[in-house]
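User: Hey, quick favor. My workstation is busy. Could you predict this chain's structure for me?
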Amino acid sequence: MRLILLGPPGAGKGTQAKILVDAYGIPQLSTGDILRSAIAAKTPLGIEAKAIVDRGDLVSDAIVNGIVSERLDADDCKPGFILDGFPRTIAQAEALDRMLLDKGAKLDAVIEIKADADELVRRVIQRAKESGGARTDDNEDVLRKRLGVYQDQTAPLVAYYSDKGLIRTVDGMAPVDEVTAAIKASIDH
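Assistant: No problem, here it is.
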């Protein structure tokens, strides 16, 4: 099972990915987690990425594509994977298509988790309080900028994958267990 989770920041992609990892026994590939690890470790990539993330901008395609391609080659990805936070742009989606073709693989579904922007701001502010501010991108100004970037750059992926017959849309405003049930129903049919 090879899946992509799409949705605006704070929509619950990470939460759903963790649940799906347990349900399907495939790894979650979160570019956000990979980049946050690099930032915490203060690697050269991490230092570069930190400045970009702190502004609420997206890390370059070249950096992200390289990270993803290497990760897809790992043994635990052979039976499948869940991409969370990648692709974010049409260019990245096209790069992923080429990567998968080169690896003899294809996507099974793209799950779009729809969510209300104002509710997302409330969720992220709450997440920041609960985590003690562990994520530097958990503040309202950065989130609103990221929501704008999502609308401009990532939302077009819905049409891209819809044209390929891969989109499955679920209501991200529902309780977590209902979102999970909707995702499973859409991919297990």
